[in-house]
Amino acid sequence: MSTFNTKNLIAKHAIIFSSTDSEISIHIFIEPFIYQDEIISPTIRLDNIDLPSTKLCDLANRSFTFTQEDINGSIFLDGSHHPVDVLDLSFFLSRQNKLTIVVKGIYVFEYEGFDDLPNEAFVLSTLVSSCDVNEQ
Fold this sequence. Notes:
Elements: E1 11-18, E2 24-30, E3 33-35, E4 38-40, E5 43-47, H1 56-59, E6 62-65, E7 72-77, E8 80-93, E9 99-107, E10 120-130
Parallel strand pairs: 1-10
Antiparallel strand pairs: 1-2, 2-5, 3-4, 5-7, 6-8, 7-8, 8-9, 9-10
């Protein structure tokens, strides 16, 4: 049996959107990888995010700091939802006029227990787009 390696958690793309009750969420899609002879393609779900907007132009070149448990975050791996504590979200506009999100946080693997992994700090970076109609 192979032990999970957090280096497999490579962000592919992120989407920011708001639900019908104006709650802002971000989903970060992870590159597929093989774990225990299966192809895994998890998503990090971040909900209840206190941001000023889902408009990309309003988020460009801004950073937001959070404390642990400010954001309801999780990743589903090995049959369990593992908490994800986000400490910082930063949005950077590239020269190609695309927005990149940088997420700094902690994977809380000790909560559910996952391959005897300790909690681990992480930094993910990927392009972000908005799902909201008429959002830029």
